[in-house]
């Protein structure tokens, strides 16, 4: 797909990976709408990108928004839906574990209510995470949710084919605003988390966005998970 002249909607597109993908799409000539619960928190963006407000956990609101915006060519979601529980499974608050699946429910809403508004030959892309297939201790919730996202995409890719494509991009440790630590503390944190990786540093939102643009542009890719993880799966 040549993104020039296409209409793209990016949920979770006001910061981090989503914003980097939105900027790349805009730079490629696409008309881009980024969606967030609070668009006022949008980081610096180009004037070609417009914003809309929506909570991905509100299915009716997602449906109404996409009906208003559609038709579209490119649909991306990196919206987290909320927090994920971290820590040993046997010590985990089960309500926290359940709440971790808000990411899945948000993605399900975007795909369920967005697919009918994606034009023939269009593309849907979701973002999972490396713990889905290489879970470290304390990451059972991350792994469960990411695995569910990837399984959903493989399932619906068969239903959507050949009209539209759907894929997943799976990041490793990425330097984004989701980590609040700053300065030397931030650098030390990322050094510790990635020191045993094949590429011993945190990735950038731009590097993940390159993976998102790959699955959007390549018309021969569907039902696939593309890893942008610094070698996490082999570490």
Brief synopsis:
The two termini are 34 Å apart.
Mean pLDDT value: 92
Low-confidence stretches: none
Spatial shape:
globular
Judged by helices, strands and strand pairing, the structural class is alpha/beta
Q: Profile the largest sheet.
A: 7 strands, parallel
Beta percentage is 15-25%
Q: What strand line-up does the widest sheet have?
A: 3-2-1-4-5-6-9
What does the radius of gyration come to? Answer: 17 Å
Q: Find the count of extended strands (DSSP E, 2+ residues).
A: 9
Helical content band:
25-40%
Intertermini distance: 34 Å
Total number of helices: 7
Q: Element order, helices and strands?
A: EHEEHEHHEHEEHEHE
Keywords:
235 residues, alpha/beta, seven-stranded parallel β-sheet, two-stranded parallel ribbon, 9 strands, 38% helix, globular
Please tell me about this protein's structure.
- The protein is an alpha/beta fold and 235 residues long.
- The protein has 7 helices and 9 strands; from the N terminus they run βαββαβααβαββαβαβ.
- The strands form 2 sheets. It has a 7-stranded parallel beta sheet with strand order 3-2-1-4-5-6-9, sandwiched between helices. Strands 7-8 form a two-stranded parallel ribbon.
- α6 links the parallel β7 and β8.
- It is globular and about 45 Å long.
- The protein starts with 6 loop residues before the first strand and ends in a 7-residue tail after the last strand.
Write the topology of this structure.
Layout: E1 7-11, H1 16-27, E2 31-36, E3 49-53, H2 59-69, E4 72-77, H3 94-100, H4 102-114, E5 118-127, H5 140-160, E6 165-171, E7 174-175, H6 183-194, E8 203-204, H7 205-217, E9 225-228
Helix pairs in contact: 1-7, 2-4, 4-5
